Amino acid sequence: MKPPCRLCGEERKEKLSSIFGQQFVEDLTYELFNPNTQKKSESPVLKELMERYLSEDLDGAIYDMLLEMFSEDHSDLLAGSDVRNRARLELARKKAWEEMVSKIKSGEIPLEHIQPSQLLEYFPEEVIEGLIEEGLIEENARRNLRYPRSILTFSNFTVEGERIIAQRLLEEAFKNLKKSGFGIHITEEEGYGIEPTNILREFDEYAHTYDLIDWQETLLTTVLRDAKEMRILPSDIKVRVPRHRSRCANVILVDISNSMYGIKFKGGLMAALALERLFQEEYKEDALHILAYNEEVYLVPPGQLLKLRPYGFTDIGYAIEAAVKILEKEEGEKNIFLITDSEPTTSNKRELSPLENAFRASYIAGKAEIRLNIVMLDKKPILRTICERIAALNGQAAVAYVDNPLNLKEFVIKTVIDRKRKRGG
Question: Which helix (H) or strand (E) is 248 found in, with range?
Answer without folding.
Answer: strand 248-255
